[in-house]
Every structure is written in C-alpha cells, then in structure tokens.
Structure prediction request, 231 residues.
Amino acid sequence: QSVLTQPPSVSAAPGQKVTISCSGSSSNMGKNYVSWYQQLPKTAPKLLIYDNNKRPSGIPDRFSGSKSGTSATLGITGLQTGDEADYYCGTWDSSLSAVVFGGGTTLTVL
Amino acid sequence: QVQLQESGPGLVKPSETLSLTCSVSGGSISSHYWSWIRQPPGKGLEYIGYIYYSGSTKYSPSLKSRVTMSVDTSKNQFSLKLSSVTAADAAVYYCARVDPSGRSAASLDYWGQGTLVTVSS
Prediction:
C-alpha cells in the first residue's frame, strides 16, 4: 500500500490529452514539492517534473505538472505511442522523514 | 553528463547482507545528495534513503534498522548495505542523484540503469 495514491491505469488516443492524479496527505503532498517520473519498459525512471511544475532541460512542454492542496496532477498533451510507460509521483513526507512514491500509473496510448 | 552505475552481487543468500556500490562519472560526488531506490519485480518504486557527500544519512523508517550507506569521495562512489535479507528484498536496485536545482529530496535527476538482486539459497 503506497503512501501516495495514483490510478492504476489511464488510456487515451494518440494526439489526445491525459491527466494522472496523485493524492496524498498534509504530511507529504500538503507541505512538500512533488516530482513526477516516467518509466519506460525495462528502463530506469526519468524525471519529468520537479518542484510541482518545473520541467528539467530536455523535457518537452507536452508534459506539465500542478499541485493543489494534498493532490497533484501530471498532464500530457499530444499523446504519442512513445509515451506508453509507467508514471510515478513522489514527494517528501515530513512525518516519515523519507521520500514516498505513488504506486504508479500505466499509460496506454490506444 | 553525469552517469551512475550500480555494481554488486546479483544473488544474495537469505539472512546475509546485500552490498551494492554506485560509481559516479562525469561529475563529482561532492556537494550532492545521493539516493538508493528499489523496485521489486512488477511493482512500484520504494525509497531506501539518501547520503550526503559528507556522510550524513537519512533512511526510510521501514528499512532503517537494516540499512547502512557510506560514501567514498576519493573513488567517487557511494554504497548500500542491507542486512538480514529475505525474499522480500529481491528487487532492482537503483542509485540516483538528488537534483541540486530542486527543493525536494524526491527530485532525482540522474539514475543508474539498475541492478537486479535475487535472494535465494
């Protein structure tokens, strides 16, 4: 059971937009910054979003992040088949004094 | 370009100690925080902890009693030891760098490719 809650799967057609939610609590998401990761099959996770809504260099602006209260959302526009992957949210939990991750969401581009 | 590479035994016997090393190239280990994360086969990410180049550490409460991290700045490496392993510790183990431009230890900008550790007698 993960500390952060994500939907197990989402799907959308190529070219469409999809959002992935991540829900936490006051001890983690409510007071700390959120990061998002993309994990393609059999590869290491890749940082997509940090500090709630910032994109590292090289990440296209099709990827966006937002946070409100104890929830965060990853948005992906102009879906491509290459976006099929598992997506994870992560943040610091002030009560646990540790990083916590969501259980991951599998994106299928139909 | 910073690169990280995990190394260590791929097979560990139950009750023994898992030992992994992460070698950092393309940049200095100094002035950064470094993390270990694991992922059981078919499952999600689990945070193990982080170490600062100076040697200070922070471990996940669920693993704290069995984890030891260390750093060797002369070799540009940091290491993980996990004692008394069981089948539940079988996973792909990743090392990663905490993003210095981020404001959270959850922001990990460079990752190793991961190394699979199996626990079996």
